[in-house]
Specification:
The chain has 497 residues and is of the alpha/beta class. It has 16 helices and 26 strands. The protein has a six-stranded parallel beta sheet, with helices on both faces. A six-stranded mixed beta sheet has the order 15-13-16-18-26-25. Helix 1 packs parallel to helix 2 and helix 1 packs across helix 15.
Length: 497
């Protein structure tokens, strides 16, 4: 049923959602419960000890966390904080990542250095401190695990899953994706590999992405409960009509639809180390826009607007664009009066020159950019991370965005800033209406910016798309869906024990 649960308003023990594997729906379910607890009069907060993602966000204090926890905090109606995600791993190559601890870079490490180095007690101590600080301010804490909880070769070094659940005393729910198949083996195998102490934490199973009538799974539900010795607390249907920002770009590459008539066709250049792909979610939902990801020159030629996105390894992604013909296609689009804009790393690529003398990102010392903007970038060891209020092109409307970048970019000719900050500073470079760059992630979430971007393209419906209101409505829709298919009252009972 869709009504809100009537639970007593007192402190609740934490709840944790863990999985049989990666991408089974833990992040979305955690987001939904953050909204449910908020609706029911509690003061919840999300927590994920360690996240691996190129999709990050700046906190109000100017520190960096995983975007998923920022989304969950938004669903809970609270500002995001580094205590919600104390460890963030940002892959730089296939074998290494930047480690962000309490919102600040702590160095680059290979996978062997990070995951193969002892039991990481010092790191786990920092994670525990963050959790306990958060728990003094919010209740309940809605915790999220990472990947599978039964990676046996890593369990003794785990700082994210059941080791954290034991520390917090969390009522833990095991999530499995039935759409993948093999759900009996994955759930039963997971439970068999747990110690008795770990099994005691598991209060129920949530089956995610079920297609069809869940009543047809009644026999399967009983088999699972008999095998796993815990109740199936809910069966969530597969849905496509609820929008929640994704944790990472794992599925972004699949959205490569071609051009559409009657809309503005926008191509996002699909670089290998694309970061903060949620910058384009607003455009993807705008009824005036057809957004697609471009990995070949032909797709660029079909677009009205080309966007160069952020990258965790700007110079190497630029090398790839030079080699696969995409760079030439982007330059040609610019010469043919198509709109070309860049965000963060994409802004850096649009300049005349990029230099990395300290090898912050790569072993490449310097290289030419695309030459679309008269700017030069030098990579620096100090990361810039902050939220920003700004006026786009010095218009009256106050806009929101955030910076996360390692380099500094300066004009090689006269200054033509795109954005003006309230503190008097500026950002970006405006060549003309159809060519500009900025360091500000989230700039396209602002209606004033999107309307200006689409203004040169006539024949569009005059619609005002409020992205923030749209996201809020979808948090409520997700909460209603979970209430309809999960035993919420049963969950509350486990949180009161």
């Amino acid at each position: 049923m869709n009504r809100k649960s009537q639970a007593p308003k007192k402190g609740l023990r934490p709840i944790m959602f863990v999985g049989t594997g990666s991408d089974v729906g833990k992040s979305v379910i955690t987001t939904g419960f953050c909204r449910i607890f908020k609706q029911d009069g509690y003061h919840p907060a999300p927590f994920k000890a360690q996240n691996m993602s190129l999709n990050s966000y700046a906190t109000p204090e100017g520190l960096e966390i995983g975007r998923a926890q920022a989304v969950q905090a938004e669903a809970a109606g609270i500002p995001c904080h580094t205590d919600m995600n104390p460890v963030l791993l940002k892959p730089t190559t296939d074998k290494s990542a930047q480690v962000v601890l309490h919102g600040e870079p702590a160095g680059n490490f290979s996978a062997f250095q990070y995951f193969g180095s002892g039991n990481r007690d010092l790191l786990f101590t920092e994670v525990k401190k963050a959790y306990h600080r958060l728990a003094t301010r919010y209740s309940p804490i809605v915790m999220e695990g990472a990947g599978s909880i039964t990676e046996m070769n890593l369990k003794d070094r785990d700082i994210t899953n059941l080791r954290m659940a034991l520390e917090a005393g969390a009522a833990t729910y095991l999530v499995a994706d039935i759409d993948r198949g093999g759900i009996f083996g994955s759930l039963y195998g997971t439970m068999c590999l747990l110690t008795q102490e770990e099994k005691n934490l598991i209060k129920g199973i949530i089956i995610n992405k079920f297609r069809g009538d869940p009543g047809l799974f009644a026999e399967g539900r009983k088999i699972l409960e008999d095998l796993c010795r815990v109740p199936v607390t809910g069966i969530l249907p597969y849905f496509r009509d609820i929008f929640i920002q994704e944790e990472d770009s794992i599925t972004a590459g699949h959205r490569r639809n071609g051009p559409a008539s009657g809309k503005v066709n926008i191509a996002v250049v699909l670089v290998k180390r694309l970061s903060n792909f949620t910058d384009f979610d607003c455009l993807r939902r705008d009824p005036r826009v057809n957004l697609f990801y471009a990995s070949e020159a032909g797709a660029i030629r079909q677009a009205d607007i080309i966007i160069l996105p952020g990258s965790k390894n700007t110079l190497e992604d630029l090398v790839a664009l030079q080699h696969n013909g995409m760079a030439e296609a982007i330059r040609n689009a610019h010469q043919n009066n198509k709109t070309v804009i860049g965000i963060c790393g994409g802004y850096q690529m649009m300049g005349e020159r990029l230099e990395d003398p300290l090898h912050v990102e790569t072993t490449i010392n310097s290289m030419n950019g695309l030459g679309l903007l008269p700017v030069k970038t030098i990579m620096e060891t100090q990361k810039t991370t902050r939220q920003r209020l700004f006026r786009f092109r010095n218009y009256k409307a106050i806009c929101n965005g955030y910076e996360i970048h390692m380099g500094a970019t300066h004009p090689t000719r006269e200054e033509r800033p795109l954005n003006h900050f309230q503190d008097g500073g500026t950002d970006g470079y405006l060549l003309h209406d159809k060519c500009w760059g900025t360091y500000l992630h989230g700039i396209l979430d602002n209606p004033a910016v999107v309307n200006e971007l689409l203004a040169p393209y006539s024949g569009l419906p005059e619609e005002v798309f409020d992205y923030r209101e749209y996201k809020d409505e979808n948090y409520d829709k997700l909460a209603a869906l979970i209430r309809s298919h999960v035993d919420i009252e049963g969950i509350y009972k486990t949180l009161q024990s």
